[in-house]
Automatic annotation (TrEMBL):
Keywords: Bacterial flagellum, Cell projection, Cilium, Flagellum. This is Flagellar basal-body rod protein FlgG. The lineage of its organism: Bacteria, Pseudomonadati, Pseudomonadota, Alphaproteobacteria, Hyphomicrobiales. NCBIfam families: FlgEFG_subfam, flgG_G_neg. Residues 4-34 form the Flagellar basal body rod protein N-terminal domain. It comes from Devosia riboflavina. Belongs to the flagella basal body rod proteins family. Its main location: other. It holds the Pfam family Flg_bb_rod. The keyword Transport does not apply. The basal body constitutes a major portion of the flagellar organelle and consists of four rings (L,P,S, and M) mounted on a central rod. The rod consists of about 26 subunits of FlgG in the distal portion, and FlgB, FlgC and FlgF are thought to build up the proximal portion of the rod with about 6 subunits each.
Amino acid sequence: MKALYIASTGMSAQERNVEVISNNIANMRTPGFKRQRAEFEDLLYQQISRAGSQTSDQGTLVPAGLEIGSGVRTVATPRVMSQGSVNPTERELDVAVRGEGFFMVDLPDGRTAYTRDGSFERNQDGTLVNSSGYEISGGITIPGDATGVSISPDGTVEAFVGTGGDAVQLGQLQVARFVNKSGLESMGDNLFLETGASGPAQIGLPNADGNGSLLQNYLEMANVNSVTEIADLIAAQRAYEMNARVISGADQMMQATSQLR
């Protein structure tokens, strides 16, 4: 009975949906995290009677065909790249992007990764790095005797070094934009990689040419809404239960048929 297999695809799809929702909820407090959503599409159809086919020599046509679907599948889990809430942290190396743009991170293998997580640190050499120790693009090094580090909305990094009275410019943070942000590949560690679907990175200065501005002493939090996720979770659970009932009903029908024999 095809209903068994069709309902099983529905259960499999809703199981994947719950996995996506659970990952969103697990990362509610992850800086720069972007929630995902599961997208579905129906499978192939068995055409028993095609709409518009001729039924007589007089040219009469079938007004509505007879076709049976094969179920559903999960086709994509795109990320929702909306702005998350920006919260104060009182740390001078915490930076949030307000608007469009990703920070750029130099990976050890030579690739460039992209992130919305601006919780930066200094390594043993004073170089600006992310929480995993990867260098922030631009090679910004903060001397050990630097005080009053400031990061302006346009990405200029300055500090007072030594006994000098004027602030010294230490470097410039840049941001990258993409035509299709949802096409970025997630690699964990709050990092994304460029793909053919995302398009090439468009690198520029913050607060210019449509790029977002930077906010020092702030972090962008996850754009996960707990109420929405719980509502989606309940809906997924109910859909899973209904597909399970279809399997149970189909089994009862098959049992009744076997008893007739």
